């Protein structure tokens, strides 16, 4: 059985840290917590769980802090989390099984990162992350903001899910770091351009976001998943600015990087649905229903587009086309995924009434 060090960097996380550590303390063999300048009870709470709590002067560099935390690990493997992450009971059990069975030749284990969940706990959006890495490989973090862990070797894609459950958001922190670097004349890597554009987008600075997303795509050096995501963000930017034709352009451009994703098929479906071109809309929504979300992909996925949403929209398309049986069929499919969704329930009631009346009419007519 392998041994595991949990390494975390924290600052002012008194509201969430105990919740995180309660969910994982029994899974690991030591806990290293690096504090980057807390002024609340974070260090006191950390002291109840951690093998070591170490101070690290904050220098606007997340990678430096994470690499510092990794340098203090002593076990076979290093597991990392943020303070507002948790593992649910089912995933704790999977983690323990992994700990007992992981072959020694595995260099990194990826886990699903659920970024948002619905009221039933089902994932809304998710991505993959390298979460458990072999300490002897001395893997390093890179990037001052939105840092990433560079790994190589034999990688295992697990089905363990880490749940992101933030209580609050550091709204200006990352943007300020990027703006400071920009003012100092730092040359941004393609990845920096992409994540700086994301921060601008989140702050509704759409014109500037467009500038940096387009710069990112023009480098032709970005990760495929980031290129696809940038196309989606550019479409959102232009849509917010009222330029739907430019938005449409970037939806189609996403197809240049990989086979169509359900998210973009749904975008096209919505575009034509708004124009009452129901057959065209139905084509794109139907295509979305034929796609299978890749289980080992590292991109961001909006689960609704791969499950219930295109069926719900197909119900709308076929309703307006007067094809009520098909509308009902797709609403029932949507209901399998989202049984309590108010639109699904409304459609069910409406369509059952229409189909019942239609059936009664035909019976009377005969």
TrEMBL record:
Concerning SUPFAM superfamilies, the annotation shows: Nucleotide-diphospho-sugar transferases (SSF53448), TPR-like (SSF48452)
> GO molecular function: any one?
glycosyltransferase activity
Protein name, per record? Glycosyltransferase
Looking up Pfam families in the UniProt record yields:
Glycos_transf_2 (PF00535)
Q: Does the keyword Nucleotide-binding apply?
A: no
User: Which key words are in the record?
Assistant: Glycosyltransferase, Transferase
Which Enzyme Commission numbers does its entry carry?
Answer: 2.4.-.-
Could you tell me which residue ranges the Glycosyltransferase 2-like domain spans?
Answer: 5-123
